[in-house]
Amino acid sequence: MTRHENISGIDAQRARAAFDAALASQRPEFEHFFLARLLGLSFAYGDADCVVEFEVQDFMFNPQGTLHGGIIATVMDISMGHLLKRMDGTGTTLEMKTQYLKPARHGVLRCRGEFIKRGKSISYLRSTLTDMDGDVVAFATSTWKRLG
Amino acid sequence: MTRHENISGIDAQRARAAFDAALASQRPEFEHFFLARLLGLSFAYGDADCVVEFEVQDFMFNPQGTLHGGIIATVMDISMGHLLKRMDGTGTTLEMKTQYLKPARHGVLRCRGEFIKRGKSISYLRSTLTDMDGDVVAFATSTWKRLG
Amino acid sequence: MTRHENISGIDAQRARAAFDAALASQRPEFEHFFLARLLGLSFAYGDADCVVEFEVQDFMFNPQGTLHGGIIATVMDISMGHLLKRMDGTGTTLEMKTQYLKPARHGVLRCRGEFIKRGKSISYLRSTLTDMDGDVVAFATSTWKRLG
Amino acid sequence: MTRHENISGIDAQRARAAFDAALASQRPEFEHFFLARLLGLSFAYGDADCVVEFEVQDFMFNPQGTLHGGIIATVMDISMGHLLKRMDGTGTTLEMKTQYLKPARHGVLRCRGEFIKRGKSISYLRSTLTDMDGDVVAFATSTWKRLG
């Protein structure tokens, strides 16, 4: 990273590597769509949860130099949508609320999506984002309508 | 766009153009940070609102081929955070709820951030995202703590 | 009001009058069910809103001596549910979020329920509670599923 | 209960007994304020939770004959506010979101308030309301500002 790039804010080389890898591997499917690839998300499933992990990178920052709340909301939304997809098929988010508890600046974050209630038509989910210290970074709840 | 790229999901050329332009123009400041540049956001301010506009592109899609809810939340968050910054200085989002009303697939979207209440310590904001037909795509409310 | 009743917290005579009037006039229907009567709600409808008014009384207080947030949520829920009932038939609240902006201690409050979006299956509503100074006491959004 | 009272909706005798008992025992303090007494709330505290129990009664119903969402919100708010009071002193609710999962018609409900995060200035709490079958009736999250 050159001095100029440092002044510019983000590590251009790492951002470009993430972008190129995402473009090369993306396809319009769960787990593999471009945004999931750009954020470097990995997916694992338990009996009743979906765990998404990713490494914080500076191209995901807000102007204050911490992980942008919109990126947090994106990953939490994905953790819930992928759990619903795996268990019950595709759904659409009617609404989602995210509470922001602790700023994240680096390291691997773990996001666990779980059901509050699995319904036939309407399902309620929640997601917890934790950092490597085990602290909760964000907590989200959402309401989904099942499709198809 | 080649047939192969079509199968792959997104228009690689447009995504790359957006990425390169973002990287070239980003700096760690309001309006200019990387995510705002990647999404191609433009900013305008009224007496008591912040209007953010951007064009939907397929690299912003969910696996169903519509604008990802996380991108919507990101832009709405930005519209409110930039209004607060302009009026009262930097703040931090305590929480935000987004309701998703209509899928968006293309065109220019307009996002208007407004105050519900400007407080000394705690401020309450809302944001409305509309498409070119004037339909509401999403509605969000949030609670902010002012800093500094 | 006797000295003893003053120490006890609420104006027992007014509370009893509200209770008796509610019991005498209640029936299990919109506008007339017991809780609506106990709170002394009046209802008016515009083309696309429902306005509910009521007078703050001390039996509705929290331990700090202001209108309890749960009573606020109840009235706002009612303003939205009655609008939906009037326009589209009965619905059920999937979720509701209320932001509390200003404490209320006395006077008549006005609560206006409106649509964010009228849907065939899912509808999105909001409600604004204002005091006699025109200040916003609370703002709520909710998501409803239409029934029958 | 006479036939006439049945037609009128609620069991007037039980409602009156609840009202009289509330009026006789209420004082403007946590656990003892009028609304808590009217709903017949009992309070128990663990190391990090507050459990509120109460019996559903028909004077708490909506026009459809199930426990009103506003009463649910009230009890959940109380479970969180009382936990915060016990642990950290009085706070004020900035916002609260409640998701409604299952209607409740009778029996004893149990509401558990817990911290998502205990903060110095801002605290985040959640509450879970369950019925006698162990099913979740409602789930709520809230954001509080500590006072004093």
| Biggest contact | C-D, 47 and 48 residues
- General shape of chain A: globular
Distinct helical segment count of chain A: 4
| The CATH top-level class label of chain A | Alpha Beta
* Span of the ends, CA to CA of chain A: 49 Å
Mean pLDDT of chain A: 94
Given helix and strand content, the structural type of chain A is alpha+beta
CATH superfamily of chain A: Hotdog Thioesterase
**Widest beta sheet: strand line-up of chain A:** 1-2-4-5-6-3
Q: Strand share of the residues of chain A? A: 25-35%
Unreliable sequence segments of chain A: 1-6
Order of helices and strands of chain A: HHHEEHEEEE
Quaternary: homotetramer
Overall tally of domains of chain A: 1
**Main pleated sheet of chain A:** 6 strands, antiparallel
Tally of strands of chain A:
6
Question: What's the architecture of chain A in CATH terms?
Answer: Roll
Q: Helical percent range of chain A?
A: 25-40%
CATH topology of chain A: Thiol Ester Dehydrase, Chain A
Rounded Rg of chain A = 16 Å
Q: Can you tell me about this structure?
A:
Four copies of one chain form a homotetramer. Chain A has 148 residues and is α+β, with helices and mostly antiparallel strands. Chain A has one domain (40-146): Hotdog Thioesterase (Thiol Ester Dehydrase, Chain A). Chain A is built from four helices and six strands. Chain A has helices spanning 3-8, 12-25, 34-38, 69-88, and strands spanning 42-45, 49-55, 91-100, 108-117, 122-130, 136-146. The first copy, chain A, has a six-stranded antiparallel β-sheet with strand order 1-2-4-5-6-3, with helices on one face. Chain A is globular, with a radius of gyration of 16 Å. Chains in contact: A-B, A-C, A-D, B-C, B-D, C-D. Chain A binds chain C through residues 94-95, 97, 121-122, 143, 145, and chain C through 94-95, 97, 121-122, 143, 145. Strand 3 of chain A pairs antiparallel with strand 3 of chain B, so a sheet runs across the interface.
